[in-house]
Design a protein that fits this description.
Layout: H1 3-21, H2 25-38, E1 42-48, E2 52-58, E3 64-70, H3 78-94, H4 101-109, H5 116-133, H6 138-160, H7 165-185, H8 192-200, H9 206-217, H10 221-249, H11 252-255, H12 265-282, H13 290-306, H14 314-336, H15 341-348, H16 354-365, H17 369-405
Antiparallel strand pairs: 1-2, 2-3
């Protein structure tokens, strides 16, 4: 193999693993481009979708080469993403012998992971904190914790069978909703809306939506449109699963139960901090960085508490709240030379409108179209503001990163 072949093979494999671990397409494309240019390659062309990548270039001797690779469904493993991101900087700076690149990538992929029991504990902790934010009582703790564990193992099993994410979402929410109904029918005095709203937060694709909007508004329209379509179908699949459970087991009286969210500002901030720490564990952030994940969630919550007193526009205060979280993440990303997603993903958790999504679906089930329309519109506005805020912050960071590579 020629040097250019080693370099391009490394670029597609690095890009593939970065995307699988949760990197944004913009960051991955930028890394591949600058690695190629660091080795003196010219006419570099990078075509990147969430499911496919191709790259081509010319070396100084006029040799042309190209590589293509498919990209499977992505997960989130932020410690691995951090290592891969550091590797991309290192290779661009020192340009090691191209024949050693494959071994460097293999070493970067070999990271320590949390035991399964710790990851489950992180999920349960995050869900309980979110439950208390939505107004959960001590009676709601057991169903939320039990169904969270069920969702964890069920999604793992369904994904291992090779089922599409659409079916996985639908079956998962059907099982979660059915279990929640069974807890009520068994005489357990739990608050059904609070339980379901909390569990929805575990499956609702808020993070993929932010990435889709980022691609849509940052010049990657094809990626953005494809991702938005996929997310819309996955979200409708969730709704279908919840709706099917309601139709099978009933739920009219349960849905109309009271929802009294927590109003203590200080406690809201603390619980948001702990929820983001819990998701930080789920996203495989190392122990010594978990406090940074929690701080991002706390800042997001503080913004959501403070900003509505200055404006009644949901779009405005959600956009500003997301911008606060994103600027915090982008600042740490530039300062520590790590991907912004390493800090963005945990920070986004307190901003995802799981309550609005649940009540929009409930309105459809109860034939309350006005209820569905109002909550559905507010949910879309919140998610749009969330996405726009992150896009605005990432646009600034994009130019900063590009200058650092140059």
């Amino acid at each position: 193999m020629r040097d250019i072949d080693y370099i391009l093979t490394f670029c597609v494999n690095l890009s593939r693993n970065m995307i699988i671990s949760g990197a944004s397409l913009e960051r991955v494309s930028l890394a591949a481009e600058f690695i190629c240019r660091a080795y003196g390659l010219s006419d570099v062309s990078v075509f990147l979708l969430s499911t496919h990548m191709s790259i081509s270039a010319l070396d100084s001797e006029g040799n042309y080469s190209s590589r293509q690779i498919s990209i499977p469904s992505s997960g989130i493993h932020l410690e691995r993403l951090k290592r891969l991101n550091q590797l991309s900087y290192k290779v661009a700076e020192i340009t090691p012998n191209p024949k050693t690149l494959a071994q460097m990538l293999e070493r970067a992929m070999n990271v320590n992971d949390y035991p399964e029991c710790v990851i489950i504990s992180g999920k349960v902790c995050a869900m309980l904190c979110l439950g208390f934010i939505f107004g959960a009582t001590l009676w709601d703790i057991i169903p939320i914790a039990c169904i969270t564990v069920l969702i964890h193992f069920l999604m793992m099993w369904l994904e291992r069978t090779g089922l599409d994410r659409i079916l996985v979402n639908s079956l998962t929410m059907w099982a979660a909703s059915s279990c929640a109904v069974m807890f009520i029918y068994s005489g357990f005095n739990a608050n059904f809306p609070v339980t379901m709203i909390t569990l929805t937060m575990l499956v609702l694709p808020g993070i993929p939506l932010v990435n889709a909007m980022r691609n849509l508004l940052c010049g990657r329209e094809i990626n953005g449109i494809l991702q938005m379509l996929k997310i819309s179908i996955e979200t409708m699949a969730m709704a279908a699963g919840i709706y099917a459970a309601f139709m099978m087991f009933g739920g009219d009286g349960m849905i109309s139960g009271s929802l009294v969210p927590l109003s203590n500002s200080g406690l809201l901030v603390v619980l948001s901090f702990m929820a983001s720490v819990g998701f930080g564990i789920v996203f495989r952030i190392p122990v010594n960085d978990l406090w940074l994940a929690g701080l991002g969630g706390a800042l997001s919550r503080m913004a959501v508490i403070i900003l509505p007193s200055f404006t009644d526009s949901r779009l405005a205060y959600m956009t500003l709240s997301a911008s606060v979280a994103a600027l915090y993440a982008e600042f740490l990303a530039v300062k520590r030379r790590q991907p912004s997603t390493y800090f963005v993903y945990p920070s986004i958790i307190p901003l995802i409108p799981g309550d609005l999504f649940f009540y929009a679906i409930s309105g459809l089930y109860m034939n309350r179209l006005d209820w569905a329309r109002i909550n559905g519109t507010d949910c879309l506005i919140s998610l749009s503001g969330l996405s726009i805020g992150f896009v605005l912050a990432s646009a600034v960071s994009h130019h900063v990163r590009r200058k650092r590579y140059m």
